[in-house]
Zf-HC2 domain-containing protein (Blautia segnis), 112 residues
Amino acid sequence: MNCQTAESMVNRYIEHDLSVNELEDFLDHVENCPSCYDELETYFIVHAAMRQLDEESGDSSLDLRELLEDDIRRSKHYILKMKFRRALSGVGFCTLIAGLGGFLIYIIMQTL
Ligand SMILES: [Zn+2]
């Protein structure tokens, strides 16, 4: 992914609107590209500050920088979870096929 693509995804990242694959590529880039990280951080902090104003939560002492790190951690966790889920359903499919194959062999053996 290049910087232009990453920058175009900043907003969607903040809105949590990226697909798992996009999210993974995006985080990969952002974590290795200080200029995009800065960009993301700026947008994220502005967004978080606005939301805090909307909610009028008294907790304005919240460290906004930490908030982004927290969000990235959570996003990574989400990617892992989705990958795990996908792997599981893959395994489930293989088990199903293997099971069907076994069943077929069993039927054939019975009829022989
Ligand atoms: Zn970049």
